[in-house]
Amino acid sequence: MPEFSKDCDPADAIFFRPDKSEPIGYLLDLSVASTTVPAELKVAVPTDVTAQVSPGTGIRLTPAVAVLGSISWSLRPNEPIRIFAYAEVAVAQTLAALRRRNLPDPVARVSIVIYDYDPAREAYYPQFRTRGGGGAPDPTVPATPVTGWLGKDGLLVAEDPEDLTPGVRVHAVQFELVPVATAVPQQILIQPSPHETIIKDFGTPD
User: Fold this and answer.
1) What three-state secondary structure class fits 173?
2) Which H or E run includes 96?
3) CB under 8 Å to 99, separation ≥6 — which residues?
4) Residue 41's beta-bridge partner residues?
5) CB 115 within 8 A of CB 25
6) Taking burial as the number of CB atoms within 10 A of a residue's CB, which of 1, 147, 158, 181 is the most buried?
7) Which of 15, 28, 184 is nearest to 109 (CA)?
8) Bridge pairing between strands 123-132 and 196-201
9) d(CA 39, CA 62)
10) What DSSP letter does each residue of 22-53 carry, written as one string?
């Protein structure tokens, strides 16, 4: 696997349908400098046993900052993760305000998870997730934040909103998370299939 690159279905991520089989991904947590961006979406995470079950649906829900459109990473510990997402209007306004502050060397904490569909099992599984603090992979533990610098272009927020689905207006958001040296290990867990897990370092120990 020379690199990881994945396109996700943002509309299905907002209105999850178990009968579909497209990859779905979420930006679960995002903080920049001292600002924690609110996670106001409630999204389906099919295999997250710690999430809150939506009453009457059997689908588990968890808060998220945004839904993913795509993500790419070279798998090298010293190279950035490139993130393209869609955020609802209020969250996009918070991100745009952070960009206008021109923070010097802004540190960001990000947690991301992508779920792909396994047709043999007819079930979703976590294909990509961030894991701060290292440790052995555990499929029952949700993604945890990793820390990095925002890339040189900072947070890029589209000026004009678009209709992701009827009644849901969003702004496109993109940024790079550049790895930093940390006191504790940071990892990315990648599963090319439900039965194979690749663990890659993100950044290097301080």
Assistant:
1) strand
2) helix 89-100
3) 154, 155, 156, 157
4) 64
5) yes
6) 147
7) 28
8) unpaired
9) 9
10) --EEEEEEEEETTEEPP--EEEE-TT-TTSEE
In tens, the pLDDT along 17-39 reads 777 788 999 999 999 988 999 99
User: Taking the mean position of all CA atoms in its chain, how far away is CA 124?
Assistant: 16
3-state SS class at 187: strand
Write the pLDDT tens digit of every residue in 152-198: 888 999 999 999 888 889 999 999 999 998 888 899 999 999 899 89
State how far the Cα of 24 lies from the Cα of 70, in Å rounded to an integer: 9
Q: Give Cβ neighbours of residue 123 (< 8 Å, ≥ 6 apart).
A: 46, 47, 117, 194
Sign of CA dihedral 174, 180, 182, 186: positive
| CA–CA dist 3, 66 (Å, integer) | 23
d(CA 87, CA 164): 10
Q: What is the dihedral of CA 131, 134, 138, 139, to 10 degrees?
A: 20
Which residues lie across from 172 on neighbouring strands?
86
Q: Enter the tokens of residue 32.
A: 């920049």
